[in-house]
Design goal:
Elements lengths: L8 H6 L4 H14 L3 H16 L5 H11 L2 H12 L4 H11 L2 H13 L4 H9 L3 H10 L9 H25 L10 H15 L4 H16 L7 H35 L7
Helix pairs in contact: 2-10, 3-5, 3-10, 3-11, 4-10, 5-6, 12-13
């Protein structure tokens, strides 16, 4: 038996992947690590909210593992408490998660060479924060060595942190008084992380537009404000990029127009 054959199963599985993918996986996990406290706090808040709702502890844990979407989980809790029909619960969760349709469409050019089941798996583990980080690092679509590994490095560490914190919140919810205002604490913890992702004018424009639209549409049912804000932010970011590209092109043409010709020289 070779040393590799005698190693643990997880280690043998790890070495089945190309070295460039393994290194990119570790790079992604390291890059995402500073965001873990915010993810942990948000997962903890969501777990406490689920446990204090109409769900039992096993139901809340099952929902955390299978749904894995904090905004949708929080959106449907009042519907469970009010005894609303299941189709209303499903519709609300689907509307809240419509932004992931947009995210998946943006990821498709990066992973269209993968088989369908692997793209579906990527979609399930996709999340708001590491989607932003991934798109910032990989602007060009298509295959690139290490691209998939980098995505999984962020996605899996995010998922593991979320599930651990959410289950802790579910199991230990009775220790957290309602007067602590955990929902506000979780939101405040996420704000610095989101601010850190603003690294361009187009991103800043998208954030400002999303915030304004979300406030204006706050009273819409089924959390539609979230979906409308995401669409408005993407449109604002694309418009800002287009205006910046046109300004750059005009600047290049202007510089060429000022250059002396050979006869003038």
């Amino acid at each position: 038996m070779t040393p590799r054959q005698s190693s643990p199963v997880w280690l043998r599985l790890w070495h089945r992947f190309a070295e460039v993918e393994r290194n990119a996986f570790l790079d992604g996990a390291r890059f995402f690590a500073p965001s873990l406290p915010a993810v942990f706090s948000w997962g903890l808040v969501t777990g406490v909210a689920m446990s204090k709702s109409a769900l039992t502890v096993p139901e809340a844990i099952g929902m955390s593992l299978l749904v894995y979407a904090g905004s949708a989980q929080l959106a449907v809790l009042p519907l469970f408490a009010a005894g609303m029909p299941i189709w209303t619960v499903w519709l609300t969760a689907a509307v809240v998660n419509l932004r992931f349709v947009i995210f998946s469409a943006a990821l498709q050019p990066h992973f269209n060479y993968l088989p369908g089941w692997r793209r579906t798996l990527l979609g399930f583990f996709n999340g708001d924060l590491h989607f932003v980080y991934f798109m910032q690092r990989y602007a060009e679509p298509g295959y690139a060595p290490g691209k998939e590994g980098y995505f999984w490095g962020m996605a899996l560490i995010n998922c593991a942190t979320w599930q651990v914190s959410s289950i802790i919140g579910i199991v230990l919810a009775s220790l957290f008084p309602d007067s602590w205002g955990l929902a506000l604490a979780g939101t405040l913890a996420l704000i610095p992380v989101m601010i850190a992702t603003i690294n361009s004018r187009s991103t800043l424009m998208a954030v400002v537009v999303a915030a304004v639209v979300a406030l204006l549409c706050f009273d819409l049912p089924y959390r539609l404000a979230l979906v409308i804000a995401v669409v408005a932010a993407i449109a604002a970011g694309m418009a800002s990029d287009e205006m910046a590209a046109r300004a750059t092109l005009r600047g290049i043409r202007a510089r060429k127009g000022r250059q002396p010709t050979g006869d003038q020289a």
